[in-house]
Amino acid sequence: MTNARHLIGLVSDTHGMVRASIFEALAGVERILHAGDVGADDVLTELATIAPVNAVFGNTDAPGNPQHAAALVLTIGGVTIHVSHGHELGSPTPATLLAAYPQQVLVYGHTHRQLIMEVDGRLIVNPGAAGARRFDLRPTVARLTIERGVAHVELVPLN
To answer: What is the rounded distance in angstroms from the CA atom of residue 47 to the CA atom of residue 123?
Structure first.
């Protein structure tokens, strides 16, 4: 475990769109984790002007893109994190994610619905869709803070 404070941006479902408000919403993050349905590669290039980006592919992304992993498993500040789009589980729910992946923080997208849930000390996060507004949901991203081996997350609305 480390005592350093880590601030991570969580993004999903940009579908080729980078809103101007994302730069303020993710200001100061040390890394961005994109949970899929990125769209064009220039989305990752634009996000990389904020911080280094790691991305997974979603169901609308072309398979085989070397900029997208199938899933990410990371340890940051002593906290294990799993990032995937969620479509690999069909229609992802907290229960299916918890059963499929053992990490402490599970980040996914696909549903476009924001979700923050803690279950038995584990955190499930869907940062919502950052791209074009769909399903009458407000576009959002999330900021994940890890400090002293503990993870906290907050949603940030986008304009």
So the answer is: 24
Split into its structural domains, the chain has a count of: 1
Describe the strand order of the beta sheet including 31-34 as a list of residue ranges: 68-69, 53-56, 31-34, 5-11, 140-147, 150-157
Distance, CA of 43 to chain centre: 14
Q: List, for residues 6-44, the tens digit of each pLDDT value.
A: 999 999 999 999 999 999 999 999 999 999 999 999 999
User: CATH number, domain at 98?
Assistant: 3.60.21.10
Structural domain including 152 reads 5-157
The residue behind tokens 């404070």 is 5
* Residue-wise DSSP of 83-119: E--SGGGSS--HHHHHHH--SSEEE--SS---EEEEE
Based on the number of CB atoms within 10 Å of its own CB, is 71 exposed (0-12), middle (13-18) or buried (19 or more)? middle
- pTM, whole model, 2 decimals? 0.96
Q: Are 33 and 81 in contact (CB under 8 A)?
A: yes
Six-digit token string for 159: 């304009």
For residue 1, pLDDT over 60 is answered with: no
